[in-house]
Design a protein that fits this description.
Layout lengths: L6 H8 L4 E4 L6 H13 L8 E5 L2 H14 L2 H4 L2 E5 H12 L1 H4 L4 E2 L2 H10 L4 H12 L1 E2 L4 H11 L1 H10 L2 E4 L7 H13 L1 E6 L18 H8 L3 E4 L12 H10 L10 E6 L2 H21 L7 E5 L2 H11 L3 E3 L2 E3 L5 E2 L3 H20 L2 H25 L4 H19 L7 H11 L8 H11 L7 H8 L7 H15 L5 H15 L8 E5 L8 E7 L17 H11 L2 E10 L9
Helix pairs in contact: 1-2, 2-3, 5-9, 7-17, 9-11, 10-11, 13-24, 16-17, 16-20, 16-21, 16-23, 17-18, 22-23
Bound molecules: adenosine-5'-triphosphate.
Adenosine-5'-triphosphate binds next to helix 2.
Pfam family, one: UvrD-helicase
GO molecular function: 3'-5' DNA helicase activity; ATP binding; ATP hydrolysis activity; DNA binding
Keywords: ATP-binding, Helicase, Hydrolase, Nucleotide-binding
């Protein structure tokens, strides 16, 4: 693939000091960082490599994809593309002893989620205590602990400098205070290249504490660096007006270009939603094929996981739109694994209860359901989803039921009781894990409270561990003629898969939240707004709606070729009046 290397890009490649590259969506920041790396890789001494840090495994996958386009196989061995977390963990694992005199242990994110939600008091304080007194380091403290190590040990710092002669920091506008602290230490001993776009700042505020709107100002005030501006470039969708439309949405000001590449599809009533969404996907695939893209990639984006799950259900069955028959559309989902894993564990504990009917299994089931809701609550709080309060209420409901059972009493009303009654009515289990799992899962449709678990547990199939799970559960049945220990088995299989399963590069139609689409690229993008949920603009952000506008811009600019916006008829206009 031939890349344009203009004078500005050449200056970035030649720059020997610290540098900041600013550019909008598709301006080629990642590509430029890799072109610069390519020039250096040959000169590295044995043992040295270039470090490229990003925030999520999904982003790492995106960068690796670009690496494959730009670097040779040999060159790829010398570039270390990592998440901040995995880089920090490696340092803590090897050198953590320097902090408190003992090797550090990592607390698994699932355990941390549960403990955090059950802990009464300040979890941040508690996690600091765990690190200090017990040598246990929680996920959220990885960066802080690494910063402390690098601040304290000049030996470790200079060793890092020798190992990594160039460190590239992706999406630096999203870095938090702790990440900034350790990056500052690295910048003392090695060359750093910061990539950023302030307008793609979508994780600020309640999403991740310590992420600051003025991060780039802080950076420029602290580190002497050369700044390069690629804001006028757009290699992703340069022949279209996709970026122009996205920028209008960002500013809220028109005029909106009359574009063939960005279209809107409206629906009026709730009962038109499913067919409209289905039609939107079909029409986008058709448009892209007509434009000569044989196997188009299409992202279907919504603001919340709930809507993403609903869209998946819609695409799995047939619909009719204005007399046109629409067949099911195969698709993949990028989803939140911890939530579905804990729903799977709750489901497995119900399976245990049905097969054992003991008081202990009964109590354990209510505990696992309570845990699921606590994790959901925590998740909504941390990632900005709605429903934290509802999840909290449901957790309390199951917590109460658990306490009653522990006293030898039964839940008297509400979803815990309905669930127990429905599960008890299930005829004897047959020892066929797939059938038995489905029978138990159906019971979770018996009460509105439990539908979220039903939904999230359906996503367990996405772990692609169904065979492993079925084999493990069948093995347990053969040994004991019960599903005793099913919850533990499910948890351990899913944890394994989570650790192993690097996110693959999805093909065809793929569904995800807008947040998850950041850093990705598709031929077509469909953004979907619900009638009563997942609006494009969140009311509490009025009057300017700046965070929603930034998020929409990120979503729209993932497209190379075509964008379709599906909105209710009476939705708030994209531009201010
Ligand atoms: N110099 C270049 N010449 C030709 N094509 C380029 C160049 N730079 C980038 N591209 C192409 O443009 C697209 C976007 O590039 P890249 O992902 O590097 O942009 P980015 O600025 O990191 O994007 P974003 O911030 O939206 O994630 C890719 O398809 C890439 O191959």
């Amino acid at each position: 693939m031939a890349f344009t290397i203009c004078e500005k890009r050449q200056s970035v490649i030649d720059e020997q000091g610290h540098a900041l590259v600013i550019g909008g969506p598709g301006s080629g920041k990642t590509t430029l960082a890799l072109l610069k790396s390519k020039g250096i890789l040959d000169t590295l001494a044995p043992g040295q490599s270039i470090l490229f840090l990003s925030f999520s495994r999904a982003a790492v996958q995106q960068i690796l994809k670009r690496c494959r386009e730009i670097l040779s196989k040999e060159e790829m061995k010398r570039i270390d593309v990592r998440t901040y977390h995995s880089f920090c963990w490696d340092i803590l694992h090897s050198h953590g002893r320097l902090l408190g005199g003992q090797p550090l242990k990592m607390m698994a994110p699932s355990e941390e989620g549960t403990r955090r939600t059950q802990f009464e008091g300040d979890w941040t304080e508690e996690s600091r205590r765990l690190l200090r007194e017990e040598g246990v380091v929680c996920f959220d403290l990885f960066a802080a602990a690494t910063a402390e190590l690098l601040e304290r040990s000049s030996h470790l710092r200079s060793w890092m400098g020798r190992l990594f002669p160039l460190v590239i920091l992706d999406e630096f506008q999203d870095s938090d205070d702790d990440q900034w602290r350790f990056v500052q230490q690295l910048s003392k001993v090695t060359q750093t290249l910061f990539l950023a776009d302030s307008e793609q700042r979508i994780f600020e505020g309640s999403f991740r504490p310590g992420v600051r709107a003025n991060r780039l100002d802080i950076l420029k005030d602290t580190i002497a660096l050369c700044e390069f501006d690629l804001r006028d470039d757009n290699f992703r969708s340069g022949d279209s007006d996709i970026l122009a439309v996205a920028d209008c949405v960002l500013s809220g000001k028109g005029p909106l270009p009359k574009s063939e590449d960005v279209k809107a599809l409206k629906y009026e009533y709730r009962n038109q939603f499913a067919a409209t969404v289905h039609f939107a996907v079909a029409v986008t695939l058709g448009t892209l094929r007509k434009r000569g893209i044989e196997d188009p990639t299409v992202a279907v984006l919504a603001r919340s996981n709930d809507l993403v799950a609903e869209i998946s259900d819609i695409l799995e069955v047939s619909h009719s739109y204005n007399g046109k028959d629409l067949r099911p559309i195969p698709h993949e989902i990028v989803w939140d694994q911890e939530l579905s894993a804990s729903a799977g564990v709750a489901m497995a504990s119900a399976l245990e209860f049905v097969s054992l009917k003991t008081p202990a299994a009964r109590e354990a089931m209510h505990t696992k359901i309570e845990e699921y809701f606590l994790i959901k609550k925590d998740f909504c709080e941390r990632y900005g989803g709605r429903g934290a309060q509802t999840a909290g209420t449901k957790a309390a409901r199951f917590g109460k039921a658990r306490a009653k059972i522990a006293e030898g009493k039964a839940p008297t009303k509400g979803s815990p009781r309905t669930l127990e009654e429905t599960l008890t009515a299930i005829p004897a289990l047959a020892g066929d894990p797939v059938r038995d799992w489905k029978a138990v899962r159906t019971a979770f449709q018996a009460h509105d409270d439990l539908k979220a678990i039903f939904q999230d547990a359906r996503m367990v199939r996405l772990f692609r561990a169904s065979d492993t799970l079925a084999t493990a559960l069948a093995g347990r049945w053969i040994e004991r003629a019960t599903y005793e220990g099913a919850a533990r088995i499910v948890r351990s299989v899913l944890d394994q898969e989570r650790l192993m399963g690097l996110e693959r590069d999805p093909k065809g139609v793929v569904l995800m939240t807008i947040h998850k689409s950041k850093g990705k690229e598709f031929d077509g993008v469909i953004l979907i707004e619900g009638l009563y949920s997942s609006p494009f603009f969140l009311k509490h952000e009025a009057p300017q709606y700046a965070p929603s506008r930034r998020l929409l811009r990120v979503g729209i600019t993932r497209a190379r070729n075509f964008v379709l916006l599906v909105r209710p008829q009476n939705a708030k206009p994209l531009l201010d009046a």
